[in-house]
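Bug #77: duplicate submission created two jobs. Keeping one. Sequence:
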Amino acid sequence: MSLSAAVRTAAGPSPSPTPSGSTTPPVPSLRDAQEHATNAAGWVEENWSTWLAIGLRVLLILVIAAVLRAVVRRAITKLIERMNRRTGTGGSTALSSLLVNAERRRQRSEAIGSVMRSVASFLILGTAALMILGTFQINLAPLLASAGVAGVAIGFGARNLVTDFLSGVFMILEDQYGVGDSIDAGVASGEVIEVGLRVTKLRGVDGEIWYVRNGEVKRIGNLSQGWSTAGVDVTVRSDENLDKVKETLDAVGERMSKEEPWNEMLWGPIEVLGLDSVLLDSMVVRVSAKTMPGKSLTVERELRWRIKRAFDEAGIAIVGGATFPVDGVPAVADPAAGVAAPSAYANTASPQSVAASPIAPPSTTK
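Kept job's structure:
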């Protein structure tokens, strides 16, 4: 062995150079890329059937929900239209033909149909959404709990709105009133010009428009449903011939019930019910008739007009006006009726005059 070889053997192997910090990462080889692609393809091959099944299930749920929603909404629309046709053609009496008008039926059917379609859509789409979330294996318990808490909070904050909406729904479903009806809602009264799910519009006697929240209505008096009663009290003298009075009133009622347009407003004969009260100098005869809803005041005014003219022609006095002549002799007015009683202050010696006289000041002379 040579000297240089012996020195290298004694010194040991030379240290390898340390890598510098700027070295680039190793480039993957073609074998590594092929291995990654093979793994990805295998993972896709293992899970593609699951993905396809989930996608088909979601698509099937959406298609069924859309078809079911369309069918239900169409069925509700047909049902409302059929109800309107039955309501419009089913009544043969004047009562049903007057209570059912086109605008009232239209608004009521639109409101009922809107509520039913909204409820059906909410139920169908909500069920479909829950089924889709369940398909992706999402735990629905936390979502339902959160939705319940949020619903309670929203309901508590908007309880007045919910109350108005529910009250409007039941008012429309029960047909408590409609467009054209005259109602007394407690907080306001007038003619209904629009019925909504939250607010009802009324036109008052003086033309003002009232916006009444449905939740504030505690009672409703409908003056346009069924029929109305026109009642007239006729006060005559106590010495009048009752047979003559009744004969005159019957003649007035018979003539009025045969004339236009009163024969349409009157739904029954004008009847003389009898005496309501008998006093020393007068008696009250009650006349009544069944009328079209909302036309009682009109019939009462016309009936009073005709009764007054008929009584004047028959020579029957109506108590309350000027004194009617008896047997052609005009009544003599009492001359003392317009003279006032003498005042107590006219007599200077009366206690009232003495009390009202001023007190003289005390004398200052001694």
